[in-house]
Structure formats: structure tokens, C-alpha cells
Design a protein that fits this description.
Elements lengths: L1 H18 L2 E3 L2 E4 L2 E2 L13 E2 L2 E4 L5 H8 L18 H14 L6 E4 L17 E4 L11 H8 L16 H4 L17 H6 L25 E8 L9 E5 L16 E3 L8 E2 L3 E3 L1
Parallel strand pairs: 8-11
Antiparallel strand pairs: 1-2, 2-5, 3-4, 5-12, 6-7, 8-9, 9-10
Amino acid sequence: MRKLLIVLLSPIIVALGACSPGKSGDMIFVPGGAFINTKSNYYGKNEKIANFYIGRFEVTQKEWVELMGTNPSLFKGDDLPVDSVSWYDCVEYCNAKSAKEGLRPYYTIDKHAPDPPEENESGEEKWTVTINERAHGYRLPTEAEWEYAAGGGRLSGSYTYSGSDDINEVAWYWKNSGDKFLHGFWNYTIIEYNKGKTKPIGRKAPNELGLYDMSGNVREWCWDRHEPATAFDAPGRVWRGGGWLGGEQACGSSFRGSWHAAGKGSDTGFRLCRGE
């Protein structure tokens, strides 16, 4: 009887495993597929995502310091997300972590070939970055991967924010990132007076895949270039998810923003990604 039960249950277990996110250290395995989140920019557009891994949390300052040796963050704390890192900084971190773990780096960085002018408004000289297609090292997520994961992947509940329609359940943003909960309209002076800042990772509820802080805390760099489309955009690289300083709209899983790749802000960080 026990053998028969095992035989009958095996297909069910396999099916559940195919639909559920797996875990590997601090990386979550995300089964690929079509976008079923009805609020996604990619919903109904025949866009499909391959399987991939993505960080359960945003990269912390402890992780950054252990690998890079310095801490660029404005708000200091081991379990706070690293902030004030440029897109270029994050690419270098990915390669450094890959090398440390014996993985082929995903990026080739040519420091003798500056990026085009629209990539870098700061005037600081930076470099050209290309990808090694067959490498399995750490990398930034594409914005499609990021949105798929933030939106819950195959388990999506079609929430506005990553894991909920109630922003306060899942995100640190301008109203709740300071000493007291703010009301009314976004105002930087009020936010500053309220001592808004980043928060320790994983303190809010996770989304359907078990990912934390994909809405709020720090904006997260993605791989893609993005031309300006709204007042929130600038030529450069895509960021997603909003941050402690941002408004509710920017924290939505489908919100798209961008900034020049050399930009650094106290509300800007990243999380890691890897191919299957």
C-alpha cells in the first residue's frame, strides 16, 4: 500500500516542484514562462522568460564590503542594502563575485572604450560593457526578468506592488521610511526632516516567489538601456522597484525608470541574477 501511495504521489510532487520556486543559498530559482501578471508591461505580448536565479534580497553592505573592500553607502549598516552604487559599480561587483567563486565572469569590461555620451551625463569617464553569452557568472537581471520575478512569475497574484496591493505590507517608501508615517503629497524637505532612509533587508513581506524588497527600499539597477519615455526617465540604464525616497507609483512592479549609468544615489542599489 505504501509503495502504491508513493507511485501515485510522485507525479503530483514533480508537478508542484515545476511550478514552485526553488532555493539555492541566497538565490531563488525562478521557473520561466509567459507573463500572467495582468498589470505587467509584458502581459499578452507573447514574451517568455527562460529559467533563472535571482537574489532573495538586495545586495547588502556586508556583502559589498567583504568583496570590494569599501562601503560607498550613505546609510551605514551590515544588513542594509548597499546604496550609492552606479550601474558600472554593480557590473564590477558581479564580475568580482564570479571570479571569487570560480565562475566565468558574465561581463567583459573594456576600460579603453568609453560608453556613448548619452550613457553618462556626469562627465566621469566610464567604459564599455559587453556580455559573455555562454558564461554562468553573476549578472544584473534584464528588466523583463526583473519584472517577471517582481510580479510573482508563474505564481503571480497580479498585484500592483511586488507581493501585495497594499504598499505598506511589502515596501519601504517615502511615507513609511522615516521616524513616523507621513501623509499628504510627496515633499523632499518633509522626508528629510522625518529622517527617511533605507531599512534592513527582509523586514517586509515577501512576494509570491519568496523575494523581498522588490518594491521599495532601494531602486534596483537592471542590465538594459532605456531611452527617455516619461518625466521620471533619463538616458542610460534601467532601474526598477522604487526606493525609500520614492513615491507609490515608482514602487509598482510595472513601473519603468532609468538614469545615466554613472549615477549614484542613496536610494539606489541592486540584486544579483544568474542563468540556470
